[in-house]
Amino acid sequence: MATLARPTALESLVAAVGARAVSTSAADLELYGQDVFSVGRTPVAVFRPVSVEMLATGVAAATGQGIAVLPRGGGMSYTSGYLAESGDALLIDLGGLDRIVEIDPVDMRVTVEAGCSWAALYEALRPLGLRTPLWGTLSGSTATIGGGMSQNGLFWGARGGSIATSALSFDVVLADGTIMKTGSDTLRPFGPDLTGLFAADCGALGIKARVTLPLMREAAAFAYGSFAFETPDQFTAATSEIARCGLASESFGFDPFLQAQRMKRDSLGADAKALVGMMKAQGGFWKGLKEGAKVVAAGRSFLDEARFSIHTIAEGRNQAAADTDMAAIREIAEQHGGREVENTIPKVLRANPFPPVNSMLGPSGERWVPVHGVVRHSRALPTIEAIIALFEAHAEPMERLGVGAGYMFLPVATTGFLIEPVFYWPDAQGALHQASVERAHLAKLHDFPANPPARALVEQLRAEIIAIFGRMEAVHFQIGRAYPLGERSNPAGWALLKQVKEAVDPHHLMNPGVLGL
Ligand SMILES: Cc1cc2nc3c(=O)[nH]c(=O)nc-3n(C[C@H](O)[C@H](O)[C@H](O)COP(=O)(O)OP(=O)(O)OC[C@H]3O[C@@H](n4cnc5c(N)ncnc54)[C@H](O)[C@@H]3O)c2cc1C
What we know:
Elements (H helix, E strand, L loop, with lengths): L6 H11 L4 E2 L2 H7 L12 E3 L4 H13 L3 E5 L16 E5 L6 E5 L4 E5 L4 H8 L4 E2 L13 H7 L17 E5 L5 E3 L12 H5 L8 E8 L1 E2 L3 E9 L2 H14 L4 E5 L1 H9 L2 H17 L1 H14 L9 E9 L2 H17 L3 E3 L2 H8 L15 E4 L2 E3 L1 H17 L1 H7 L2 E9 L3 E10 L5 H6 L2 H5 L8 H20 L13 H4 L2 H14 L13
Helix pairs in contact: 1-3, 7-11, 7-13, 9-10, 9-12, 13-17
The chain binds flavin-adenine dinucleotide (FAD).
Flavin-adenine dinucleotide binds next to strand 3, helix 5 and strand 10.
């Protein structure tokens, strides 16, 4: 048992919600006191509510005693969004609030509790031929819908924008335990957009307890295309044009380093099985077997020579529609010097959209952390060039300390170009890695010793990249405690946001410090 800073306050919490919902075990305090990148101040306890009413009661009991509350969904972020900076804080694990409350195929909406994972919702909707328009992050086997709504993000359905834009309404628990519904479940906004106010707040304004999302029919047909490019200017021009035309439901790219990392992972062969399953569901048994065999035959060598690559998925109501979009994508890629290669990567990913979160460690067990910015199209190439120059300037210490870096790219709707540099370095795993990565996979990886100099270099480069993004007027998801929202905001808008924070959280006990508030 850890030493409790506030035993009396905890006794009132336990009296209000029951002892089973509160843990002070040393193992829990360690696990919940860290995210994928950082270790924060140890929370005084972990509270795991199993109903919305229990959540509200627990929040009121904690804040009534002056204890801050930190909401945590799947814990899959790396920007200290749920890590305490100072003072006594209660970590609230929303994983116990994971029910799908109602699927309504007549009025085309679904309500889930905030701790429901993207994968669980996708699996529940799939047999009904339904889906949400923005349908999760690649971490969705563990990451929650409440976490996605709270710190925003994107992957599946990125043609439609970022995740938090898609919510119809939230039920939010405020700092004093009030349960408040934002807007309406039919259309957003209903008057000034309260749903939008709580979206992407990283839990600064309240804790999402339930989320209502719109439904759409799942696509009936898919086409896949992958293209290799020699230079970043060809690659960015093609990526932007595909996004402007709205042709791909998802398109994403890798630089040479990340491509090599992706190819080193041992999941491609295993994923062929998932692919066969998907193809069977989509288009019959023989097509499934044939596609699975093609993936295995293509192996990992098809991108060995490529410098940059783009992977695209087109979806449609029928095969002709998906193929027509893919033909247009192909034409754009070729116009910009692209060469078509095996489409294994998008096919495998679509077949298994929510893989285990094993990629939170590098292929040999290195530590991993991404940093990202979303710039307008005209800034994509200058931003990439500035980051390449930064890495070149630090080539010697990076080489010496074993710090590797690559990037992933992803257009967002028609207006945004996400650039995500990713670092790998040999360093000790945390309790969260050990709890999240599959046992069998973990057993194959190195367990590196702690490596403070390499980590310090990663932290320095991450800060310099955030500064480059600042000069390029980038915006960010996952703001947490890592990106300077205040500095980048319009002063009048920032002042208004601070007043809103003051109004909903006058004692500064709702995730204090997150977003810089
Ligand atoms: C392997 C891997 C792959 C990833 N892939 C992607 C990707 O494809 N796209 C992407 O955008 N990101 C990705 N991420 C980053 C991250 O997983 C996502 O941003 C995800 O949305 C985090 O959700 P979570 O439930 O784990 O949130 P947490 O990490 O638990 O919390 C994130 C923030 O939201 C707040 N919060 C959580 N739940 C609530 C709530 N109910 N109410 C109020 N505040 C809350 C927390 O306080 C914190 O500030 C990936 C991460 C990993 C490890």
